[in-house]
Design brief:
heterodimer, A: Rossmann fold, 4-stranded antiparallel sheet, about 25% strand, B: about 400 residues, alpha+beta, 2 domains, two-stranded antiparallel sheet, about 55% helix, binds adenosine-5'-triphosphate, binds magnesium ion
Chain lengths: ~250, ~400
């Protein structure tokens, strides 16, 4: 069976100053439908760079990227926009909600660009998603009126609006306290159980422990790819795995 | 994303910054006010002048003796000595198929006296035909007849300014004897008031007497020369024929050889109107250039605000792109914002411009003509300005890379 995501021999080279920076240095990785992947590694190892390319927010310098069997590495900005709209959801570290705009409208936004639902359906779906992430009754709150954890839940609801097969998350708990982080990770676990593919960047071992598969990067290369055949890992097991990979 | 949705998004973004939006509308608004004022005042002034000119006379054509330039000193229009009252009579006699009425005109300034009162003013020596040619009326008494002209009768009709200065409000001037240059003249009529003309000159400060009498008693001239003649043509359509035949007749009467230039000039109201038209045209053009400059300044203001707005909302742009906004969606959103700003400014400018035109018109005593089309033009112009000046900022926004926007500090 074809992979949902497959990158092969991918480079991202930034030519700033004299020395070109190889943010990605020949990475190959594939992710199958329904996987829950944590991408780990030290700061500057290229995690965000890879996630942005996977999420079609950025284009690689070199290499191929098959998303759902489609080559997307060399598409136009407009085509990439359509792909993001229909197939991908994003959750950012800093939430990125539209300010002074209600939670409901923030969640509705992706469908405005997709144009699949009519007004009533769109509102109904957004309400349903907000309820699902535990924000029933907060639909009309603006981001300023919500806590960080609540804002991130609005962002997750928004990521789910167009029913994408994959959700990407770059340090989704990076700005949250432990309690909110646990709530967010439980939500991701539920989504994963429902069959949504999740690719998440994190450098916290306890957060990574929620994922089933662990990819450890260093200097733009994948050092270790643990598919979690041995079952769910504890935080300690994740720590050990990362330490081994980077040793 | 549907156009309407993008439009709503644009409106909301503008609504978030009402003061800034208002200020950026202002420039365009002022530009449109200028455009409307320019059009209204230009049209109004022109209409008024055309009205004024046509009130000078019916199918009017004027003939002046040649200007005599002695050395560098210009003698001024009508100061030549070549044209006589006989020329006028000849035109009336021989060119009746083209010319309905002819009135020679001589002018002189005199001291006029009635009892103890006196007044200095203009005496126009004219013929009875002047009533047909110019729009003069007689409100009291009568005008002098052709017979009185032929006999050089010492009669005159007076304008209302002369009347009030010599007779006051209570005394009827009809039948009274006044002295002009110590010659006695009988007042037989009062002219209907015409008021001041465009150039502020009091048209009622006038006495009209038969040109023959003015010649004989006031100018005491051996020569029968006149300052000008006014002709009323049968039809303005024959203007060119009339000019040609009048010229031919006068040349023949003045014994001009082929190589000699005319010793007279013809003038008609269409020429005057053309001159006025070109003057108001130039003024209108200047106003229009001024308006265009104001619009460009307004447009640059909008462009500036939009550039600031794009930079300020770069994370919003990145977010919208990341959830599926195409470059085109972003382009349309920002262009629409600029166009909303400029058309709202333009619409307000139309309103204020119409009001301002009426105020200026009332102050200047001019009719204000605002064609409904000019409001539509103003609206179209302002949206085009928005489109033009909004395009570059919007295009820049649409070319941004989503990840650069999201990372923007
Ligand atoms: N726009 C850019 N221009 C130049 N260099 C860049 C750019 N973006 C990333 N890099 C470089 O690429 C490398 C990888 O960056 P990346 O953001 O992917 O790291 P990361 O693994 O996400 O780190 P962190 O855990 O700190 O977020 C770094 O060395 C960084 O300096
Ligand atoms: Mg990162």
């Amino acid at each position: 069976m074809a992979h949902l995501i497959e990158i092969r021999d991918m480079y991202k080279i930034y030519a700033i100053g004299d020395e070109p920076v190889h943010a990605l240095d020949g990475v190959s990785l594939s992710v199958d439908d329904g996987e829950f992947v944590a991408i780990m590694g030290s700061s500057g190892s290229g995690k965000s760079t890879m996630l942005n390319i996977l999420g079609c927010l950025d284009v690689p310098t070199k290499g191929s990227y098959l998303l759902d069997g489609l080559e997307v590495a060399k598409r136009s900005p407009a085509e990439l926009a359509r792909i993001r709209c229909m197939k991908l959801g994003f959750v950012f570290q800093n939430f990125n909600l539209l300010p002074r705009t209600s939670a409901l409208e923030n969640v509705e936004l992706p469908d405005l660009y997709m144009g699949r639902l009519n007004r009533r359906e769109r509102k109904a779906r957004a309400m349903q998603l907000l309820e699902r992430v535990g924000l029933k009754g907060r639909e009309m709150h603006t981001p300023a009126q919500l806590s960080g954890g609540q804002q991130q839940r609005v962002a997750i609801a928004r990521a789910l609006m167009n029913n994408p097969p994959v959700v990407f998350a770059d340090e989704p708990t990076g700005n949250l306290d432990t309690k909110s982080s646990i709530e967010i990770m439980n939500l991701f676990t539920e989504l994963s159980n429902e069959g949504i593919t999740i690719v998440m960047v994190t450098h916290e071992d306890d957060i990574a422990a929620y994922a089933k598969r662990h990819v450890v990067m260093r200097d733009g290369k994948v050092m270790r790819d643990d598919r979690g055949e041995g079952g769910r890992k504890t935080t300690e097991e994740v720590s050990r795995l990362v330490k081994e990979a980077l040793a | 994303m549907s156009f309407l949705t993008i439009f709503k998004v644009s409106l909301r973004s503008l609504g978030r910054n009402p003061i800034r939006s208002f200020l950026s509308c202002l420039g365009i608004g002022i530009g449109i006010v200028a455009v409307i004022l320019a059009m209204a005042i230009g049209e109004g002034a022109k209409t008024m002048m055309v009205k004024e000119i046509s009130s000078m006379g019916n199918n009017l054509m004027m003939v002046f003796p040649e200007r005599r330039n002695r050395g560098p000193v210009s003698g001024g229009m009508g100061q030549g000595q070549t044209m006589t009252a006989e020329d006028a009579e000849a035109i009336k006699r021989e060119l009746g198929h083209l010319v309905k009425s002819v009135s020679p005109q001589v002018r002189t300034t005199v001291q006029m006296m009635y009892g103890a009162k006196n007044w200095a003013g203009n005496v126009q020596g004219v013929a009875t035909d002047v009533l047909d040619i110019s729009n003069w009326t007689v409100t009291e008494g009568r005008f002098f007849t052709d017979d009185e002209t032929r006999l050089a009768a010492r009669v005159c009709v007076i304008g209302t300014t002369v009347q009030s200065n010599l007779f006051g409000d209570d005394e009827s001037p009809i039948g009274k004897i006044i002295r002009l240059k110590n010659m006695t003249f009988r007042v037989i009529g009062v002219l209907g008031s015409k008021g001041a003309n465009n150039w502020g000159q009091d048209q009622d400060d006038v006495i009209m007497a038969p040109y023959t009498s003015v010649h004989r008693y006031l100018q005491r001239s051996k020569f029968n020369t006149i300052n000008m003649m006014n002709l009323s043509l049968v039809s303005m359509d024959d203007l060119e024929d009339a000019k040609r035949e009048v010229s031919a007749l006068l040349r023949q009467r003045h014994h001009l050889a082929d190589w000699q230039d005319n010793d007279f000039e013809t003038r008609d109201t269409t020429e005057i109107m053309n001159t006025i038209g070109s003057v108001t045209g130039i003024v209108g053009m200047l106003l229009l250039i001024f308006s265009v400059i104001t619009l460009v300044v307004g447009g640059i203001g909008i462009m500036n605000i939009m550039l600031v707005s794009v930079t300020e909302r770069i994370r919003e742009i990145g977010l919208r792109m990341s959830i599926g906004a195409t470059p085109r969606n972003i382009l349309v959103q920002f262009i629409l914002e600029a166009m909303v700003l400029s058309t709202v400014g333009g619409a307000a400018g139309v309103g204020v411009g119409i009001g301002a035109s009426h105020i200026v018109g009332a102050a200047a005593g001019w009719p204000v003509l605002i064609e409904p089309a000019s409001a539509v033009y103003a609206f179209i112009i302002s949206s085009v300005v928005g489109l033009f000046f909004g395009f570059y900022p919007a295009w820049r926004a649409s070319k941004l890379n989503p990840i650069d926007c999201l990372r923007y500090e």
